[in-house]
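Changelog note: in this version the structure field was regenerated for every chain. One regenerated record is shown below for reference.
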Amino acid sequence: MLSVIIITKNEAINIVDCVKSARFAHEILVLDSGSQDNTVELALKAGAKVIQTDWPGFGPQKNRAIKWSRGDWIYSLDADERISVELAHEILGAINENKFHVFDVPRKSFFINRFIKYSGWWPDRTRRLFKRGFAKFTSHQVHENLSSHFPVGHLKAHMIHYSYRSLESVLKKINRYSSGSARDLKNKKDGSLLKAITHGLWAFIRTYFIKLGFLDGREGFILAVMNGESSYYKYLKLYYLKSSRRFKWQ
């Protein structure tokens, strides 16, 4: 039995197409953390089971979804992602073959108005399919990953990721993700203005030049700037967080 788990908050724009792409699974479980739009109603109408809960962070929430799902196999899907028809067939085949207990999948990501081919975003392999008991998510507030000590198989068909549909979403995620990353680093690293500047510059250089972001045209440059800003604000927020200075978190 395969369960697809999805965590949501205010994902009305995404949830219907997301759930539809997972209808090949035996169970689609949505954990919603206080949506103020009609995400819950749309998810139920599309055929998902919905549990409403609080928000402990990305990693802990996905581990909750694992615990509350019923499948022997689990696929973790974000609301802004879609499982292609080809990937759905490959997932079912991998489960039947049972050669590996954990699989990663390539992810094709959309940024503002185009799919990104470079900038470190392709093939962007990420672990998503696993047999119960063989993997779990890290406890990170953001940028959580599926951790496992077992060999990882590689699926070939790609998942589609509508990560940033507009400049507004870029700005919102820079703020939210940099805040979450600062909290994750609080007990591990120190922040400073110098670190914020150097890490921000390095993130831009790595994305635009080393990862060939310039080949993605205008969006490649915007993406490199976004990565630089996110890293800059992460270390700046970490500085204020650890120095107990007054700071407004969002």
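Spot check on this record: The longest strand covers residues 2-8. The first helix runs from residue 15 to 21.
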